[in-house]
Amino acid sequence: MNIHDFTAKQKDGNAIDLKNYKGKVLLIVNTASKCTFTPQFEDLQRLYVQYKEAGLEILGFPCNQFGGQEPGSNEEAAEFCQLNYGVAFPIFSKVEVNGENADPLFQYLREFAPFRGFDDSNINEKLLKMMIADRNPEWLVGDSIKWNFTKFLIDSNGTVIKRFEPSDGFSSIQQHVESLLI
């Protein structure tokens, strides 16, 4: 089993087979329009423009599980990304990424790219850990997705390669993407 065995709902609710992305390097991201990390859409779009022709696809999945930071409809979430950040990569239907109703794709991603742990020397991660402890302490343990803008890198064969936390720098993400596109 790999990523190509899953389907995802587009913003209009129609399902698409992820096998349509065979041969592409994927960066799968849970997103939100009202999050501290929302400006990462700029970096994601820049990465997409830079590497799309080389075979990169970015797939955005809005998620409202973290502080209600994606309250609108699927269409509103996609429109926000396009109008405010010029996002040209696909924004899918809203999903849950943790808990009983977690989307099967994200259950799979969590299983094959476990959480690396918090880096307490990184102030952003330290603050994120404190916020999660206050709001959703059940997500501190295990491989749950800790917050919006967690990213999963998938190679062109559909294999999960790496998980990036919301606080990880884009230079590291770019280096890993480049290594798969060469």
Q: Care to describe what's here?
A:
This protein is α+β, with helices and mostly antiparallel strands. The chain has a single domain (25-173), classed as Glutaredoxin (3-Layer(aba) Sandwich), CATH 3.40.30. It has helices at 40-51, 74-85, 104-112, 123-135, 170-181, and strands spanning 7-9, 15-17, 25-31, 56-62, 151-154, 160-164. The strands form two sheets. It has a four-stranded mixed beta sheet.
Question: What structural class do the secondary elements suggest?
Answer: alpha+beta
CATH superfamily: Glutaredoxin
Separate helix tally: 5
Overall geometric form: globular
Largest sheet: 4 strands, mixed
CATH architecture: 3-Layer(aba) Sandwich
Strand arrangement in the largest pleated sheet = 4-3-5-6
Low-confidence stretches: none
CATH class: Alpha Beta
Helical content stands at 25-40%
Mean pLDDT: 94
Kindly estimate the percentage of residues that lie in beta strands according to DSSP.
Answer: 15-25%
| CATH-assigned fold name | Glutaredoxin
N-to-C order of helices and strands = EEEHEHHHEEH
Can you tell me the number of structural domains? 1
Number of strands: 6
Active site: 35
Keywords: Oxidoreductase, Peroxidase
InterPro entries: Glutathione_peroxidase, GPX_CS, Thioredoxin-like_sf
GO molecular function, one term: peroxidase activity
